[in-house]
Amino acid sequence: MSTSSTSKNNSANSAIVLSYLEGYPNHSYRNFLKVFHDEVITSTLLNASTPSNASIPLNDWCYFDNFWANQFLNTARLQLDKENYISLKEKVRIILFCKIRVTPGWGAGLVTGTAQLGELLDF
């Protein structure tokens, strides 16, 4: 993929995240994926269909989840104040590193009775 093509894809992905950050005051990665599901899937499929990404299987959702988490955090780092960014980063890290799925509707039962964790994850 050429540098200009990569730059355009990153800009488009950042614009999706930026739309969420500007439009929703209570930021969470899970809610971002829920609200912008269609845009994320479309962009992911377009990116995966480029020749340079042809080796990435379309069913490798772990790769795509990590990709979007990085897009989300990189854009948030540039847009939010330091305190809000750090808080948001911790929420995303809990989701990714604890292997809790971020698919809407799945995982909420995993934290039942754990108010602090549920609060962090914005369930």
Describe the protein in words.
With 123 residues, the chain is mostly helical. The protein has one domain. 67% of the residues lie in helices and 0% in strands. It starts with a helix and ends with a helix.
Low-confidence segments = 1-6, 102-123
Tell the overall outline. Answer: globular
The termini sit apart by 38 Å
Counting copies of identical and different chains, the oligomeric state is single chain
**Average pLDDT metric:** 75
Quantity of strands, as a count:
0
Major sheet summary line: none
* C-alpha Rg (nearest Å): 15 Å
Task: Please work out how many helical segments DSSP would assign.
Answer: 6
* Computed structural class: mainly alpha
What is the chain-wise order of helices and strands? HHHHHH
The figure for the number of domains is 1
Measured as a percent range, the helix fraction is 55-70%
Percent strand: under 5%
SSE blueprint and pairings:
Elements lengths: L2 H21 L5 H7 L1 H12 L12 H19 L2 H16 L17 H7 L2
Helix pairs in contact: 1-3, 1-4, 4-5
Summarize the structure.
The chain is mostly helical and 123 residues long.
Question: Key features?
Answer:
single chain; mainly alpha; disordered N terminus
